[in-house]
Design brief:
12-stranded mixed beta sheet, 9 helices, alpha/beta, 2 domains, 5-stranded mixed beta sheet, 335 residues, Aminopeptidase, globular
């Protein structure tokens, strides 16, 4: 069930993310009236362990009248607080739950309570019309702050570069919030570094506040000097039957320093880890859904290496996240 509110419950902004489940009893949509319309949509905690969005928004709102501050909101804000059950346990998602950022319209998730919930939120926002949409996430691995878009359009890129000149364009995976909302408003996903990083929280707060103050989003074209744009071309996963870890004594022993590869342009032949046996321990899927593992990786006498120059993102040492999502994405420069 979706909770719909028109004000911030008393004491809510004093709570940390793991305390929200008791206060809200489930996913919650809060509409806060501002001086301008249409509204800015912000989603937080679609992954329960990615807390920067909630920390940034609750700090921001304390300065404005809906949160007890003195200033009126410059624009109406619609805040969606997602997987509070997983947030209680500081997990991306609970075992048995679908991923809250794979269940939006257009995805491949089986029909369930979560897909119906996201359908409802999307229909409500499409009907009311939005100025823009921001979905806030953290990385578990070492990554710079960056923005993601699903449409290479001027207003989308202008929104993204307000957060970072480093922008990634992707259309897979499906079922993500930004892709669903891209059909009716400029939308962006922002990746704000590691959980708990104070610089990431401040950066996110400043970005959301800047968007609230915008009168409009410029639609003029950015030059190549204003944006570093990359395109996600493939997703790398480890099959469920492959036992893996970091270091030795695993079927797939990944390099413990693998995170350092994020956003680095790796030459062909870069060593990713060591493999016991002859089975390729990765599956690489292209943007179109084709299996293209052999195009990107090979085994050389037990060493796992990339066959082509690649630039990975979202590499992490969090083995639970790797199982629930993927090992990484592979990118190329967008031209």
């Amino acid at each position: 069930m979706l909770n719909e509110l028109n004000q911030i419950p008393r004491g809510l902004l004093e709570l940390q993310s793991h305390q929200l489940a008791d206060a809200l009893q489930g996913p919650t949509l809060i509409t806060l009236q501002g001086m301008r319309e249409p509204a800015l949509f912000v989603s937080v905690l679609l992954h329960g362990n990615e807390t920067t969005g909630w920390e940034a928004v609750r700090r921001l709102l304390q300065d404005y009248t809906p949160g007890g501050g003195e200033r009126p909101l410059p624009r109406t804000l619609v805040l969606f607080i997602g997987n509070v059950d997983a947030a209680r346990h500081q997990l991306r998602r609970m075992d048995g739950q679908p991923d809250y950022n794979r269940t939006w319209p257009g995805g491949k998730a089986d029909a369930c309570a979560e897909t119906r919930l996201m359908d409802q939120v999307t229909a409500l926002m499409r009907q009311r019309g939005l100025f823009a949409s921001i979905d806030i996430h953290n990385n578990t691995g070492l990554n710079p702050h960056y923005a993601c878009v699903n449409v290479v359009g001027n207003s989308f890129l202008r929104l993204a570069t307000l957060f970072s000149r480093l922008v990634i364009y992707f259309i897979r995976p499906r079922g993500v919030q930004s892709l669903a909302f891209a059909e009716f408003c400029p939308s962006v996903t922002i990746e704000c570094g590691k959980v708990g990083d104070e610089a990431g929280i401040r950066h996110t707060q400043e970005f959301v506040e800047a968007c609230l103050h915008l009168h409009d989003l410029p639609n003029d074209t950015l030059s190549h000097t204003q944006v570093d744009l990359f395109h996600t071309v493939a997703t790398v996963k480890i099959p469920a039957h492959i036992e893996f870890g970091f270091g030795e004594h695993h079927l797939l022993g990944l390099d413990p320093r693998l995170e350092r590869f994020n956003f680095s342009e790796l030459p062909a032949g870069t060593h990713w880890g060591d493999v016991l046996g002859e089975e390729m321990p990765l599956v690489v899927t292209s943007e179109s859904g084709e299996i293209v593992t052999s195009d990107f990786f090979e085994l050389q006498q037990g060493r796992l290496v990339n066959r082509l120059p690649v630039m990975p993102s979202m590499l992490t040492r969090d083995e639970r996240v790797i199982r629930q999502d993927c090992l990484c994405y592979l990118m190329e420069r967008y031209t």
